[in-house]
Amino acid sequence: xxxxxxxxxxxxxxxxxxxxxxxxxxxxxxxxxxxxxxxxxxxxxxxxxxxxxxxxxxxxxxxxxxxxxxxxxxxxxxxxxxxxxxxxxxxxxxxxxxxxxxxxxxxxxxxxxxxxxxxxxxxxxxxxxxxxxxxxxxxxxxxxxxxxxxxxxxxxxxxxxxxxxxxxxxxxxxxxxxxxxxxxxxxxxxxxxxxxxxxxxxxxxxxxxxxxxxxxxxxxxxxxxxxxxxxxxxxxxxxxxxxxxxxxxxxxxxxxxxx
Length: 259
What we know:
mainly alpha, 9 helices, globular
């Protein structure tokens, strides 16, 4: 007779293979239905001092402050899940560098949304003291993020970051909103108004290639925890194909709608 003291096997974390796909799916819907309007507003905030879309600035401030809490906690959930499944995740340091640059672009967009002038005095490249302080704070925030990304998860308390978790779902909501808005305002601030030249086939192909590279540079750093979790699961060619397919599924509407 089997002993009643035998422990039951731990339940399978079914969300482990679906976290990134769900994130991408939400982004696809956002890019199709909302991103063109947000991109135009972000572009006006950076180019027209009289536009002042204050509502966009407020939303970006709120979601940026929420990300300060959400990203480190999400990284703990991801590190725990990777460790629990016996996989090995990378640090995400390369993407972190891009994330830091994108955070600074978002900061400038926030300032533009309130009609705040970045250039001061004689030179347009001069940065006012208040922006210098905000830039320093942004760099400190990004360095703190890096510390969490470099963690292995070995010191995490057992059971605190188990799935399913309502807390993690709320954090996912914050991060997907940050990624969607962040990508759109960055695209709107830098590339909107540039013609893809669809009537010129050779130039259109070249522009599509460039737009694809820009998409990867803008989008992937805004979903670092999900990318680390996805890459840790890749064991075969089919896993790699599934990952690339999910990113391509986001890239197509993101480029098509915003170009």
